[in-house]
Amino acid sequence: MSEPVGPASAVRPFLVTAGRVVGDADGRSMPVETQVVATTEGLDALDRLAFEEHDIVAVCRLPQSIAEIAARLRLHLNVVRVLAEDLRAAGQLTVHVPDSGVIHDASVLRRVIDGLRAVPDSRGVTP
User: 58-72: string of b/e by CB count within 10 Å (b at 16+)?
Assistant: First the structure.
């Protein structure tokens, strides 16, 4: 009998986001290179936040990209996008979308690529 590959997510992404696949009312998703950082209000609310929201705010004590958060917390990228938008709307995260010149900076792109490569697949396996 083979050993399990790793822990499977107990909750499917659509349950965590209540079926939403984009964060804002305009139907746009945050770019993966978007930098987010916890606000004082967010840090003060940590004990009152739900599981994934708590983890996102906690990891954002220092600025993190959406891709980095997904990789660190082993969450689906779109789950992080939707929850980060919810947390921004509640005043618990500050969001900084880099201008197009920064997006084309090779070091930023390399960090985003490395972050995406660190995101495990549906079996929890990191490539």
Answer: eebeeebbbbbbbbb
Per-residue 3-state assignment (H helix, E strand, C coil) for 30-56: CCCCCEEEECHHHHHCHHHCCHHHHHH
pLDDT score of 10: 46
Confidence of residue 26 (pLDDT cuts 50, 70, 90): low
3-state secondary structure of 23: coil
- Hunting for tokens 């010149």 — which residue is that? 101
The residue with tokens 């770019």 is 31
Tokens representing 97? 């979308």
Runs of H (alpha helix) within the chain = 13-16, 40-44, 51-59, 66-73, 77-89, 100-103, 106-117
Do 23 and 85 contact (CB within 8 A), yes or no?
yes
